[in-house]
């Protein structure tokens, strides 16, 4: 299916029938009728002028330490969430841990293993919408209002450690999926502005991306990202960019390091003590989708057991990500399959800390 991708925020040229179209192939797209076209099937001219972020969608940041969270939130609206590139449901899990009253949680995910894990852990509480490339304006109208949109598009083609990365515009890569998030964000943000309803959003991706890609994303969202590192909340270095309208997030990013420096978790606290496993280091590097990911000098074989140096168990990795042990131990999933799911997931500790900024905006149970 030919799908229109905006290539520059300021580009005012051409319409749907001109040659700036690109193709998305494989499992990511299917032909839909002209009366129910994907959010992405629009002209560059339509997306050339981004909507100004209104006060209803992007409150001015306030000092995190001065936020007074309401003890009685019964009069506040319940959360209606859309999670794109949902993975194994870490966003939903974080909201549950924070005690938010979730009216409905919609998600877009196509990985079969990820869907198996979320189905096992959350039953039908997550309403799956299918591929992000198949979400249409009609679907968005049907599930609206949405007052929280979040997600992180695949980072492999943006990551600085991938020497074969394709960037944001290659139709053969996954980086181009950022535009799927952006155009859904644009549509929902516009609906919320017109209806004067609350709308908060968060987009996450790897902090090692090239500056040109970071600048492109920032131009589309008309804001700069904050940098957050799970190092301050877990024994893993995992630096990520967050573009967001959550109230106070800019101030939070400034003080995060100072808040947790003196009480940062250590790897030893996450190991299986019954097996006499001891940490050789306090923190490890970024855990990716590959079992061999921790090969830098500071992270290689970070555990000592029975006098031998070894790697992390998959249950220990789950706990490092803020999940219960065996969270991904579903069906007959292999260790490598579980590692792949975890390597693509959000750090629950970080996303909980960020979403906590909404504690005085939405109801809690």
UniProtKB/TrEMBL annotation:
Cite a GO CC annotation: nucleus
Going by the UniProt record, its keywords in alphabetical order are: Methyltransferase, S-adenosyl-L-methionine, Transferase
Catalytic positions are: 155
Gene3D superfamilies from the xrefs? 2.20.70.90, Vaccinia Virus protein VP39
The main enzyme category here is transferase
- Enzyme Commission code(s) on record: 2.1.1.37
GO process terms (BP): methylation
Disordered: where is this region?
1-38
Per its UniProt entry, which superkingdom is the organism in?
A: Eukaryota
**Which molecular function GO terms apply here?**
DNA (cytosine-5-)-methyltransferase activity
What family, per the record? Belongs to the class I-like SAM-binding methyltransferase superfamily. C5-methyltransferase family.
Q: What is this protein called?
A: DNA (cytosine-5-)-methyltransferase
User: What species is this protein from?
Assistant: Macrosiphum euphorbiae
């Amino acid at each position: 299916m030919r799908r229109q991708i905006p290539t520059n925020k300021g580009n005012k040229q051409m319409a749907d029938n001109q040659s700036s179209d690109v193709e998305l192939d494989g499992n990511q797209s299917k032909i839909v009728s002209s009366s129910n076209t994907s959010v992405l099937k629009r002209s560059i001219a339509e997306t050339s002028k981004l909507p100004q972020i209104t006060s209803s969608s992007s409150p001015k940041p306030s000092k995190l330490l001065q936020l007074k969270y309401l003890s009685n939130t019964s009069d506040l609206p319940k959360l209606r969430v859309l999670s794109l590139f949902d993975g194994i449901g870490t966003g939903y899990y974080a909201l549950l841990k924070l005690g938010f009253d979730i009216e409905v949680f919609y998600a877009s995910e196509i990985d079969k293993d990820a869907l198996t894990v979320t189905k096992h852990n959350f039953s039908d509480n997550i309403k799956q919408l299918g591929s992000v490339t198949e979400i249409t304006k009609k679907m968005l109208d049907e599930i609206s209002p949405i007052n929280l949109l979040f997600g992180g598009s695949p980072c492999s083609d943006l990551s600085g450690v991938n020497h074969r990365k394709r960037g944001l515009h290659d139709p053969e890569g996954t980086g181009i999926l950022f535009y799927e998030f952006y155009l859904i964000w644009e549509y929902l943000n516009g609906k919320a502005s017109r209806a004067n309803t609350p709308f908060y959003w968060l987009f996450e991706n790897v902090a090692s991306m090239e500056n040109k890609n970071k600048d492109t994303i920032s131009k589309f969202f008309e804001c700069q990202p904050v940098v957050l590192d799970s190092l301050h909340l877990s024994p893993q270095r995992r630096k990520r960019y967050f573009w967001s309208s959550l109230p106070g997030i800019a101030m939070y990013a400034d003080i995060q390091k100072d808040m947790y420096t003196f009480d940062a978790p250590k790897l030893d606290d996450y190991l299986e003590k019954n097996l006499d496993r001891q940490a050789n280091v306090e923190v490890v590097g970024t855990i990716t989708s590959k079992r061999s990911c921790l090969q830098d000098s500071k992270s290689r074989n970070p555990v000592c057991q029975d006098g031998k140096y070894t790697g992390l168990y998959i249950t220990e990795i789950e706990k490092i990500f803020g999940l219960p042990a065996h969270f991904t131990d579903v069906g007959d999933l292999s260790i490598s399959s579980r590692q792949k799911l975890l390597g693509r997931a959000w750090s629950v500790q970080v996303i909980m800390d960020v979403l906590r900024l909404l504690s005085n905006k939405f109801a809690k149970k």
